[in-house]
């Protein structure tokens, strides 16, 4: 039914179609017409609605296409399959099921919309239709389990480098371990879900959410002080396929370097891109609160925090907040 | 139908019941009777079969009971729920589904039989009905991902200590990382499946298979040179509930020590119980073959291998085989 309403409105791009005409043509009530319009709006279609004249289609959401993505990724060999969905609960769930069914490394799941996008620590992730990049990449690194957290840091480096290029001249930095920030506000989130047998990684699902073309009214009020989008910062929309391709290209390069030469280079670049270092910080770890100044990463990928007595403490897992700020 | 055959044979413990009588009484063919007898044998029932006299029930399999287990575990607080199954594909699969549905730490899944028991690296695990302990324990350690492999070593220490007590005076040792051996033959396997979000463990499923009362004809021919059971080594059957309880009690103690005081003690005890140290060894790692002599564990739980040039190499993941032996 949504498609039939769209068809009728597309034939009528200059003028309006009244709710009455739509309801007659489609044999549904005017309330039903209104409900379908709302549903289309949620998918990114924009309408002008006039009580007197009816509805007019103003703009359609830009859609990702597998063909376009494949063309932009033709120089890479990492991506073996792209699964593009209109709406899913969470691309992580889809990718996880595929990985359990032996999907190869390089299977990429993308959705225009997530209805239950997942962030770190069970938090929700705002992922409205057509506005952002919500994707999950299946990886099968031949790595011991210990090193999975290095992949988290690598993914942040790849995404930061990709966004700095496509969204230049925005100043984008990494908050430990893997959030990307512009002026202290979050523009993307990374969630790596790892599954291991004993000391051997079976697979890793790298989930990436990027707030590309979201506008202020896409966010719940309470998130506006801490979240932003590339569009809001740049003042213009960006092409999502370009960003996906830029990320995959960066990721593939770093992933190859990492697998061949280890964590050294990734660590150095992470430190260079980080906005979490050399500032007094409070870290809520599973075993208690640590106050100190992060000065870098150690060889394993742990955050090295300088304590008041001058000693260095490696932190493997924590929530970080500025010392002067109690906002979680 | 299996139950009705059992009933009839149980009423007749002194004498035999002929296939003809059984087939008449149950209104099934004599071939069908024979098939049901085979099925019951697979479940651990033993029959004497005489062409002239028919069948006689000799012994029933010993069954685990939740009540008996709970009584034996009354001194511990780790176990929150026991799920006892007659036959499952794999207790790991069941426990994993429970963990995804938020089952608490201490959920213990036990099966009399596994039809697709899983071992390390996707290998099958022989788990006939009533003869062994096939179980999976849900853990939710508040640990960074990096430390999951320490839990693998801890589980091996707990199981080795438990078996040395209940199956004294057998000489049981740990082969790196977590197989238990008697005289070079495997008597148990441990498989820890970990799931993590970024650097944080979500849950760990500790799968434990113990060949308690298996007899030689329970194994495929080709496994006999490398596998054995406690019964085959001791010359008498053991009570499975006692072994489960002994393991849980050991595990709980070590797990508490580990969470409060770290890996130090576990490492020392693992080294003391290991049969993998101080012997020239070949290690097949994901990045190539390493030849050297393991001398202990490092702080992270990696195996420290002394190379020919005297340097120490930490090994995180490998398959180990004696240098003079090409058996994989």
Automatic annotation (TrEMBL), chains A, B:
<keyword id="KW-0804">Transcription</keyword>
<dbReference type="Pfam" id="PF03099">
    <property type="entry name" value="BPL_LplA_LipB"/>
</dbReference>
<feature type="binding site">
    <location>
        <begin position="118"/>
        <end position="120"/>
    </location>
    <ligand>
        <name>biotin</name>
    </ligand>
</feature>
<dbReference type="InterPro" id="IPR036390">
    <property type="entry name" value="WH_DNA-bd_sf"/>
</dbReference>
<protein>
    <recommendedName>
        <fullName>Bifunctional ligase/repressor BirA</fullName>
        <ecNumber>6.3.4.15</ecNumber>
    </recommendedName>
</protein>
<dbReference type="InterPro" id="IPR003142">
    <property type="entry name" value="BPL_C"/>
</dbReference>
<dbReference type="GO" id="GO:0009249">
    <property type="term" value="P:protein lipoylation"/>
</dbReference>
<dbReference type="InterPro" id="IPR045864">
    <property type="entry name" value="aa-tRNA-synth_II/BPL/LPL"/>
</dbReference>
<keyword id="KW-0805">Transcription regulation</keyword>
<keyword id="KW-0092">Biotin</keyword>
<keyword id="KW-0238">DNA-binding</keyword>
<feature type="DNA-binding region" description="H-T-H motif">
    <location>
        <begin position="19"/>
        <end position="38"/>
    </location>
</feature>
<dbReference type="InterPro" id="IPR030855">
    <property type="entry name" value="Bifunct_BirA"/>
</dbReference>
<dbReference type="InterPro" id="IPR004143">
    <property type="entry name" value="BPL_LPL_catalytic"/>
</dbReference>
<dbReference type="Pfam" id="PF02237">
    <property type="entry name" value="BPL_C"/>
</dbReference>
<keyword id="KW-0547">Nucleotide-binding</keyword>
<dbReference type="GO" id="GO:0006355">
    <property type="term" value="P:regulation of DNA-templated transcription"/>
</dbReference>
<dbReference type="GO" id="GO:0005524">
    <property type="term" value="F:ATP binding"/>
</dbReference>
<dbReference type="InterPro" id="IPR004408">
    <property type="entry name" value="Biotin_CoA_COase_ligase"/>
</dbReference>
<feature type="binding site">
    <location>
        <position position="114"/>
    </location>
    <ligand>
        <name>biotin</name>
    </ligand>
</feature>
<dbReference type="Pfam" id="PF08279">
    <property type="entry name" value="HTH_11"/>
</dbReference>
<dbReference type="GO" id="GO:0003677">
    <property type="term" value="F:DNA binding"/>
</dbReference>
<keyword id="KW-0067">ATP-binding</keyword>
<comment type="similarity">
    <text>Belongs to the biotin--protein ligase family.</text>
</comment>
<dbReference type="GO" id="GO:0016740">
    <property type="term" value="F:transferase activity"/>
</dbReference>
<keyword id="KW-0436">Ligase</keyword>
<comment type="function">
    <text>Acts both as a biotin--[acetyl-CoA-carboxylase] ligase and a repressor.</text>
</comment>
<feature type="binding site">
    <location>
        <position position="186"/>
    </location>
    <ligand>
        <name>biotin</name>
    </ligand>
</feature>
<dbReference type="InterPro" id="IPR013196">
    <property type="entry name" value="HTH_11"/>
</dbReference>
<dbReference type="GO" id="GO:0005737">
    <property type="term" value="C:cytoplasm"/>
</dbReference>
<dbReference type="InterPro" id="IPR011991">
    <property type="entry name" value="ArsR-like_HTH"/>
</dbReference>
<keyword id="KW-0678">Repressor</keyword>
<dbReference type="InterPro" id="IPR036388">
    <property type="entry name" value="WH-like_DNA-bd_sf"/>
</dbReference>
<dbReference type="GO" id="GO:0004077">
    <property type="term" value="F:biotin--[biotin carboxyl-carrier protein] ligase activity"/>
</dbReference>
